[in-house]
Amino acid sequence: MIRVRHKMLVASIALLSSATIWAQNSKHTLELDGSSTNIKIQPAMYGVFFEDINQGADGGLYAELVKNRSFEFYNPLMGWTQPKGDLHSENKNSGYANIVTDKNKSNHNYARVTINNDKNYELINEGFKGMGLHKGSKYNFSFLSEKASGNIHHIKADLIDEQGNVVGSANIALNKNGFQKYDAVITPSKTVEKGKLKLTFEGNGVLNLDMVSLFPQETWNNRPNGLRKDLVQKLYDLKPGFVRFPGGCIVEGRTLAERYQWKKTVGNIADREILINRWNTEFAHRPAPDYFQSFGLGFFEYFQLSEDLGAEPLPILSCGIACQFNTGELVPIGDIDTYVQDALDLIEFANGDQSTAWGKVRADMGHPKPFNLKYIGVGNEQWGPDYIERYKIFEKAIKSKYPNMIIISGSGPFEAGEYFDYGWDELKKLNAEIIDEHYYKTPQWFQENAKRYDNYDRKGPKVFAGEYAAQTVAIASPDNKNSWETALSEAAFMTGLERNADVVYMTSYAPLLAHAEGWQWTPDLIWFNNLSSYVTPNYYVQKLFSNNKGTDVIKISENGKAVTGDEKLYASAVVDKNSKETIIKIVNTDSKSKEININSKNLKWGKNLTKTTLSSSSLSDENNFSLENIKPKSENISVKSGSLSTTIPANSLVVLKIK
Questions:
Q1: pLDDT tens-digit map of 532-580
Q2: DSSP H or E run through 17
Q3: Global pTM?
Q4: Nearest-CA neighbor of 298 among 208, 225, 387, 203?
Q5: What is the predicted pLDDT for the residue at 8?
Q6: Which of 95, 335, 472, 640 could hold 115 in an S-S bridge, CB 3.0 to 4.6 Å?
Q7: Where are the domains of the chain?
Q8: What letters, b where the CB count within 10 A reaches 16 and e where it falls short, cover 85-101?
Q9: How far apart, in whole angstroms, are the C-alpha atoms of residue 165 and residue 599?
Q10: Which of 72, 312, 381, 581 is catalytic?
Q11: How sure is the predictor about 14, in pLDDT bands with cuts at 50, 70 and 90?
């Protein structure tokens, strides 16, 4: 018994000793030096990247509720059903719709509706995974129509719920000559997540129908035919420094014919030529045969959105290479001038006065003042000699006409390797201004790469971290999650971006938006369905950095070294000369909390500190439509002049802000 007790005593002493060692290891003294580093935080440091993936535009940010409103899909009646008869059914005697095509117009198709049996025929639109309808909200219903023969004198528009019950109606008299626009306002009597629009016709005869539309009146800034308010509000709350658009791989297209052509996305909405979405058939695990682009959200609307958000517009244009993961189709160098001219014309559209051809187009669309475009991107994720050859031509032409335009070039789709090294080497020779880097990697990679930019050439090109997101499984896996582990790892990485703001000028998470039923790619920053939306832990990490970016980097160190992951602790610090605040960001990826003491020099502090903590009890935790478990919590703390002590919880991001 004595020996047993002796062994227990030794074990207890060992445990106490271990606990003491752990306690010592969990205490950190950080030194904050307010003397100038001469490293400025760029106003456009933290931005948003938008691409029409995951039903991000039609059925998402663009608030139109009618799918295939102008019958332009490759199957012109996709999204529409005729439950009581169609052209090929035995019931066509009641009525039917067929498609008339005029290839001389950019809006090629319209529906010709034949009514033989008054009030019996129905034409129903299913919307984008249904139509989200809010009780008591007002919806603008409109269409273009002309009588071809007979006397169809009214169209009745019913909003119906999942069971087919009518929740709102409008009856529109057809009393105009020629192809004319008709409109009405419908107010649903109940909230419906997956509603539909049903059209019935009074009278008999033949009617031509086009541009059938249903829009909520309550859009962002209450613009007719505008953007979904709750989604734009979430972007606005990020205080983004830039908006990168329209992608992404969607810029390139699977083929050159399917590339994004900005000139087809401006002007009269009814005349914008529809295009198959590049993500339509990309992933076998998430086929989307009804995924097209109406371009109701086009380049004018992108510029307008950027202006609304107080962000710099950053358009990315095709460089004449289709997606190299698909066809890799190349425009011959002899034919590249058309693509280059598109870039020059876009700058004129954005910045030219009304005396210029494209400046007049912008003014005629309702924006006489220039958009003050400063950045333009040439290509998205292209690589190799073909890209460099084409980039040189674009750069020469743009700089010759617009010498102050800042050009974004690309280093390919990977964060390292042969393509990456070749791209950087060649672009450095060309004195490229900003090079776009992309990385979709594991959470561990993001933690390990907080020092990625510490040794980049300070005199070389600057970096645009244009697409990044931690992947819980693997890139493009449908099983990736927006877990707290991914967000925390991104936060650790972002301290490295901020510390190296003399190299890293711009950053954006990707992708931005995802429909809960219409997604192709995970993870994503903001999730939505037809009625509501929620933000991920990753969103809150982005928001805490963007809302607290400051103006100048200052040094924060431990034992004379930057805080870059030793003992799973990361930190960066800035001052905001406008608000006269010191802002410290600390990330703890350890499963244990850490006691932090911060000593400062060359800084004058007030007595009140705001401490904002973002954390969760489990690394696998996520937010969802029902509950945002993971969101920042703030508290006010009194501090002594020149130093402060605080606890950084396990697996947390903490932002300390002091006047």
A1: 999 999 999 999 999 999 999 999 999 999 999 999 999 999 999 999 9
A2: helix 2-25
A3: 0.94
A4: 225
A5: 42
A6: 95
A7: 28-40+553-658, 80-216
A8: bbeeeeebebbbbeeee
A9: 67
A10: 381
A11: very low
Q: Report the Cα 35 to chain-centroid distance in Å.
A: 37
Alpha carbon distances (Å) from 466 to 83, 132, 451: 47, 32, 18
pLDDT in tens, 230-271: 999 999 999 999 999 999 999 999 999 999 999 999 999 999
Q: Strand, coil or helix: what is 16?
A: helix
Q: Any idea which fold 28-40+553-658 has? A: Immunoglobulin-like (2.60.40)
What lies within 8 Å, CB to CB, of 591 at 6+ separation is 650, 651
In angstroms, the Cα distances linking 219 to 170, 198, 222 are 21, 23, 5
The pair of three-digit structure tokens given for residue 351, joined into one six-digit string: 């910045």
Residue 262, classified by CB atoms within 10 Å of its CB into exposed (0-12), middle (13-18) or buried (19+), is: buried
Closest of 221, 89, 575, 316 to residue 97, by C-alpha: 89
CATH number of 80-216: 2.60.120.260
Contacts of 207 by beta carbon, 8 Å cutoff, 6+ apart: 112, 113, 115, 145, 146, 147, 148, 152, 174, 201
Q: Assign 368 a pLDDT band (cuts: 50, 70, 90).
A: very high
102 DSSP 8-state letter: -
Using the predicted structure, report yes or no on whether residue 291 has a pLDDT greater than 80: yes
DSSP of 609-651: EEEEEEE-S-TT----SS---S--EEEEEE-BTTEEEEEE-TT
Q: Is the peptide bond before 523 cis (omega within 30 degrees of 0)?
A: yes
